[in-house]
Design a protein that fits this description.
Number of helices: 2
Order of helices and strands: EHEEHE
Helix content: 10-25%
Radius of gyration: 13 Å
Number of strands: 4
Structural class: alpha+beta
Shape: globular
Length: 81
Amino acid sequence: MNKENHMNNKKMTWDEIKERYPHRNVGLVNVKKKNNSEVIESAVVKYTDEETDYNTLAIMAMNNEIILRYTTLDEDLPITS
């Protein structure tokens, strides 16, 4: 099954993207960044590493077709003691 077929092409906030696609590499388009920084405010998920292999995503990112990000970073994980 091609996950791209049921991605809704809806613009989502970065928090919504992380919630919907946890622990995934995502290929983003229509990206809005916060205050002209590299922090993503919102975007459309066009690809994930579930249906598109990482090397293909990386090449697309190098060709400026997508912005490639991993959705769960260490600072997003709960602190355990």
